[in-house]
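Predict the 3D structure for this chain.
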Amino acid sequence: MGDFENRILQIIGSYPKGIKAKDIAQLMGCDRKDVNSALYGVLKGRCYQDSAYCWHLNSKGNGSGTEKPTITTTPDKRLSDLCRYYLNCLSLEESSGISAFLKSKFSLNYAELPSLTVDSSDETIAKLIAKVSADKKLSANLGYPVPIEKIHSSKTNQDYMLIAPVFLFTVEISGGAVSVASVPHVNMEVIKKYSSRDINSQVYDLVELENELGLNSSEAEIEPDELAARLQSMRDWQWRETLDPDKINRTPPVSEIAEEGIYNRAIFIVTERSPYTVGLESELSQLAGLDENSYKNTALYDWIHNTASSDERGLPEDVPLLEVLPTNSEQEQAIKRAMSSRLTIVTGPPGTGKSQVVTNLLVNSARAGKSVLFTSKNNKAVDVVDSRVNALGSRPIMLRIGGNQYAHHLAELIEDLLSYSADQTDRQEHERYKALYGEKIGAYNELKKKKDAVVALRNRADHMEQRACELRGTWEKWFSSVTETEADGAETAFNGYCAAYDRWHRAKNSFFGRLFWFATGSRKTAELVSHTAALNEWLLKYELRAEATSGETPDSGAHKRLCTEGEQLIYALRTIAEYREAVQELLAEPQLEELDRALLRVKSELSEIASKLWNKWLVTRPLNIDADSRREMSEFVAAMRLVESTDLSDYPNLNRQFKMLQQKMASFLPCWAVTSLSAKGRVPFQPGIFDLVVIDEASQCDIASALPMLYRAKRAVIIGDPKQLSHISTLSKKQDLSLLQKYCVSMGWSYSANSLYAMASGLTSPDQIVQLRDHHRSFGDIIEFSNAEFYDGRLRVATNYDRLRCPRNVEAGIRWVNVVGKTTRPPAGGAYNDAEAAAIVKEIRRLVTDNGYTGTVGVVTPFRAQAERIRAAIERSPELVSALAKNDFLVDTVHKFQGDERDLMFFSPVISHGTPQGALGFLKNTGNLFNVAITRARAVLVVVGDFSYCLKCAVPYMEHFANYVGSIMLRQEKETKRALEYPADRLYPKVSNPEQVSDWERLFYTALFDAGIRTIPQYPVEKYKLDLAIIDGGSMLDIEVDGEMYHKDWNGELCYRDQLRNQRLFELGWDVKRFWVYQIRDDLQGCIEQVRRWCDK
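Done. Predicted structure below.
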């Protein structure tokens, strides 16, 4: 050991907290490689390196050269067992790493590199980049160093050479730009070759190696040369060349190497994208080592220890939600619950406004100073929320994290935030809009209370009418005249008689009464006679039996009869009077339709004010940023400009400072959006760093990939729909059961059988599950089948039909183009039907290209072979491909359409004569896929298939659907014939739905007809049937009779459906007038006059 080595030891000894090799080299004025060579060579036993790549003198006697961590805590057994179980599941499901054939008759999936950079101008690399850009299933990595391995194929009885890099640096390709990740992960393929463990345990070797290399440290600043030197010093593998990232060998070309081993080579390699990344395995491994206290205040702890059902106080009651997008009652409930509960489940069937819930939740959380992480396994779901939230205002609040470009995007957002100068006028405007919004919320709530009060009055009147109904036969003539005063008078007379008789009877029959009868008897008798006469007068008035006493007192029999008649009188008068009072109170209140109009108006005003308030909140945010924060923001923007094309590895202090600034800057964007599998290394892995995590499409999500996200947040919102696409695993049920038993994990956590949504639903109480029910996407006929088949009729159609885009001369709804073809099973499996494929192309030409249609268009089918057939048929026509470019055209299987939608959708069922049993079996087990397929259509769904075969195909939902479409076609044919015809007869005409018509509607129709007012019964307007309709030029009146609900209570659900119906009719220009049965029965002429006044106007 010479002076050079001694000098290194002296420097290390003067830094108790450790020092990096680059800093040693800077202090010594020499090359870092020389320092590394000494540290990993002569000095290997004299010093050691910690996980942050800092060197320390080996005073602990550690001769390995790396720091040995000391375990001081006991891992939480529940969490540890669960994570180890999932790691085992992942290793079984995704057992292969990244590799490629060294040589191939076809094009290679890799290209050799001269350095650890990707030169996109290189012709070979450019072709591979184009390949990745064109196929979303492919991913690219920079690999270094390169092991070469010989394998033998028993199928061909030949030997092949494989190439599988040790380190994989993710390469992001976006719009032609290429960026390489600074921190790599270890290739599982290499672990499989050198690990002595069984395949189920090899993932632990991978995690252990990454920990030793410091790849899982969030503070690590790893240089490729140190990483390579450290690996070569730690593992006794087949090193054929000394690793030196700065001097990549090129001779001989890697494709000509014949000897197995690891070479100092670098390659650009393209492979199919893995559904699970090593990042997930790494984070699960870290979670497995946590003790209970280290993650106690996280959503993950609640799930593991089943404490998610206990609520915390969230949004104060006096703080109204800011509805930047209008919400209904269920959406509002979901948002409020999400802001207060530790766990909230939101069930969102197709088109029910899940993104509206998320958007309003993020906005209100940001206003309340809370941070939110939005995530999904679906890139599209993340992109939709990101664009929707940031499009609401002039300043973004959401940071979309993906690839390595997010830091640059963050810098742009921070610079924008810093550059805007708000003033006190903006703050005053914010306060003004805040107060105005509060006033409007108060007005809206008062209107809702008023409507609730009217409904309560209606129900009270109905209850009273039910009691009064039994009196109508005898008391009908007095129903219009009896008042409370009248009832009070009769009751006074009856009570007076009863009291007088009681006094008279006691006096006559008691000892003292008889003793003094001579003095009191005549007076008491006179009183009784007088009260008897008064009561008789009331009884005679209402034609009840009176007792003719001729100045005599009634005997006991007469008394009993008077009491019976009197009680009957009082009951009848009181019942009639209360009924009349209830009806008069009801009629004195505004009509429900008037209140609905007012509610719609105020809701619209609220939306407008909310938008202004939100923008003012965004504008005034800079006023809340202190001077120190503004200075740091300015430094960060400057730093981003400096490091845009500069490697900071040679400037360790600046690099550390830059990373600290970057983490601080993220706090100015309170909402983050990231796909769950790209969070590692991009979202800090710290417990409860976010107040809330929102996980969308949870029915498709496995539980394992959600655990790291739950760890990062204090509370969770889980959004999904168990009736749509579900989590799919290639892990066999037998393997899963074996692992569940091995790790003592309950079956509810099953990796293969349970989705994240299902697991979350089992952790909550029923009141924590909010079901969204208003459907806003599709035409009524399209969604109503799924509503009945999959959702038990719970959905309410609230689609704004004015926004639907139909091809010219085509009405919204479902059409079936009958095509009798033949189903063929290709060798690779599945099924296709060429006749259907040809018919679909023909229909696309007719409805889209020849019609000049500009709406979005899609074709969906259950079978991939059919999708490929249709796609190929379209691609054979360049002009058709060109014409469809404007329609955002997509043809694929259901999985590609999850979370997507189209104006015009074609569905190819494929099944017809010759359908193999395997294809039918597949369809029988995939009802959820069918639900997703048909609910992608907004305006028009065109089914192209064998109608007769589908009617009897033995696939239940398909048979039901064919019957449903058939019934729609019959209904449309009937309605087209009679829709605009005014009946010529005073008798109520035949209608298609007589079971829904009450006697009161029939009566009112005839009365109006006799009065010279013609109406059309059961007039169809979109999905609604109007009781009686009047169309006079541009004026339209819907007359509704409360007949169907006669003697039934109106509840909140009924009122809300009625409100949705009124809202749509108002939008279409209809007036709505509702008549209660009590009005028609008691004041038929008055009801007719109301309609006549509308006609006269």
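Residues 441 and 606 are 7 Å apart (CA to CA).
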